[in-house]
Backbone:
């Protein structure tokens, strides 16, 4: 079991800690927050004791009581925090997207390989058994693959606040927010892992008055088919996602959090595929990240890292096509 430090005291951090400890992959030893009071409140919420607390990133990363850090701060903070972690010799698990742009990703790529540490992007759905079942179905029917429609549209709990005249991080270009860099990351990961990197990317976005995308549609073009992606944080949709194989279709109940896979044959008969799903969707990634580090499985690591590299490239290509600019893009 590896020792874990965390940055971010929100629900997703709690979920990862629970997954890490349920699977005996990581043990929480230190928590960073901007205030020690907030870190203490988080630890108490977890029902834990004897956890070191820090309100200074420098002292946090200088600590020798953890070797891996999980970062779940706002998007724009990922790069700086991950860079500091790597410079201090820590392995990094960072929530997706790991960076705001390709320039930042290339810097972390070079630094992590030079330092000999691991840098994981926490795309938890691609590690789940139910996603691997979909991946297996696509591989088995590769010759008939003829496109896909992926949908992940969910009304944000912060959108009402935005409509009231405030500027939550998720709708703020300063924090690299918006639909594409939130829900859209899931769909792009689906496409890259299942179909590979596209030849071209186009994003038609609904731009909010903050300069951030509230929703939109992407078209990823491949040699023989297109993948159409619908994303949004300003409305709700209950449309399933579909992968097409001529007369046959694979239905996914969600492009972001798959709970059910259904095959439709040419007679339109629906057959639900047998799958497994953990109560905690982060279990599988926690197990895999720890396994790769413990076994020094370079092959599996580089495969995951290449997915992250391609996803971040697609995200930037999509933003460029839609004219979306983050504050991070202006940094030298």
Residues:
């Amino acid at each position: 079991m590896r020792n874990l430090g965390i940055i971010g005291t929100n629900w997703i951090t709690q979920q990862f800690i629970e997954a890490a400890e349920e699977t005996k992959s990581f043990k929480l030893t230190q928590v960073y927050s901007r205030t020690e009071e907030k870190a203490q409140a988080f630890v108490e919420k977890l029902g834990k004791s004897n956890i070191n607390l820090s309100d200074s990133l420098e002292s946090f990363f200088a600590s020798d009581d953890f070797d891996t850090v999980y970062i779940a701060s706002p998007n724009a903070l990922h790069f700086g925090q991950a860079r500091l972690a790597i410079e201090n010799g820590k392995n990094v698990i960072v929530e997706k997207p790991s960076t705001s742009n390709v320039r930042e990703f290339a810097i972390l790529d070079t630094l992590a390989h030079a330092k000999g540490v691991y840098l994981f992007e926490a795309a938890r759905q691609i590690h789940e058994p139910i996603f691997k079942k979909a991946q297996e179905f696509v591989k088995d029917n590769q010759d008939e693959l003829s496109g896909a429609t992926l949908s992940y549209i969910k009304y944000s709990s912060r959108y009402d606040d935005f409509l009231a005249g405030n500027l939550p991080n998720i709708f703020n270009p300063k924090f690299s927010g918006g639909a594409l860099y939130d829900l859209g990351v899931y769909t792009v990961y689906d496409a890259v892992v299942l179909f590979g990197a596209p030849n071209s990317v186009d994003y038609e976005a609904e731009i909010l008055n903050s300069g951030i995308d509230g929703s939109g549609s992407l078209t990823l073009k491949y040699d023989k088919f297109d993948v159409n992606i619908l994303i949004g944080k300003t409305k709700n949709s209950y449309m399933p996602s579909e992968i097409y194989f001529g007369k046959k279709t694979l239905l996914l109940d969600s492009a972001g959090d798959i709970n059910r896979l259904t095959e439709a044959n040419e007679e339109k008969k629906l057959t639900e595929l047998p799958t497994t799903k953990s109560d905690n969707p982060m279990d599988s990634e926690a197990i895999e990240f720890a396994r790769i580090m413990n076994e020094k499985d370079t092959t599996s690591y580089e495969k995951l890292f290449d997915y992250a590299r391609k996803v971040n490239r697609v995200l930037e290509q999509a933003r460029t096509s839609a004219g979306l600019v983050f504050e991070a893009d202006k940094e030298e």
